Amino acid sequence: MRFELGDLRAWSPANPVDVIVSNATLQWVPGHPDLLARLVGALAPGGVLAVQVPANFDQPSHTIRAELAAQAPFAAYLGGVAVPSSHDAGTYLTRLHLLGCAVDAWETTYLHVLAGADAVFDWVVGTGARPTLQALPEGPIRTEFARRLWAGLRAAYAVGPAGVVLSFRRVFFIARSPE
Fold first, then answer.
1. Which CATH number does the domain housing residue 63 bear?
2. Closest Cα to residue 54, out of 28, 21, 35?
3. What's the whole-model pTM score?
4. Is there a domain that residue 118 lies in?
5. 103-141: pLDDT as tens digits
């Protein structure tokens, strides 16, 4: 087994590979469905592409960040910031089927039970909101954005009897290249 650090958009193995696994990566690549043909093309005959992408971008954990990012004074700093996105399982199934692959694709919604009133804030500042916060200048603007994000998430994700429940839909697909 060999690992490489690089930009997936430019990655090309020297020889066809048996397996490509992508866990929570493709959502950061704009237009990533167009990348699937190249990834399948990098597989040896009968090789497997296995992918998981988050698909919860319509949830408050993302929509609150997007709404804040569009407001002044934050918008002036956030024009080119990476924002994750993905598609439904059917979109990936169709795209990969058209490439000649045998495909299994499905969606699962996990109910992550988190501890503490700030659990969702802590989650998003380490994941989807991280590029946004890093793009804001240190100091009052970043602090105010974080404060508003924190307040919005606290209101959207109240502590219930089980704790804070973060509904998190994910899309999975496994594609086998033609033999």
1. 3.40.50.150
2. 28
3. 0.89
4. yes
5. 999 999 999 999 999 999 999 998 889 999 999 999 999
Q: Distance (Å, rounded) from C-alpha 24 to C-alpha 164? A: 23
* Confidence at 3, pLDDT banded by 50, 70, 90: confident
Domain range enclosing 172: 17-176
Quick one: pLDDT band at residue 5, thresholds 50, 70, 90? confident
CA 81/CA 136 separation, integer angstroms: 10
51: confidence class by pLDDT, cuts 50, 70, 90: very high
Closest listed residue to residue 65, CA positions, set 132, 116, 158: 132
**What is the number of domains present in the chain?**
1
Cβ count near 174 (within 10 Å): 17
3-class SS string, the chain:
CCCCCCCCCCCCCCCCEEEEEEECCHHHCCCHHHHHHHHHHCEEEEEEEEEEEECCCCCHHHHHHHHHHCCCCHHHHCCCCCCCCCCCHHHHHHHHHHCCCEEEEEEEEEEEEECCCCHHHHHHHCCCCHHHHHHCCCCHHHHHHHHHHHHHHHHHCCCECCEEEEEEEEEEEEEECCC
pLDDT at 113: 97
pLDDT of amino acid 6: 83
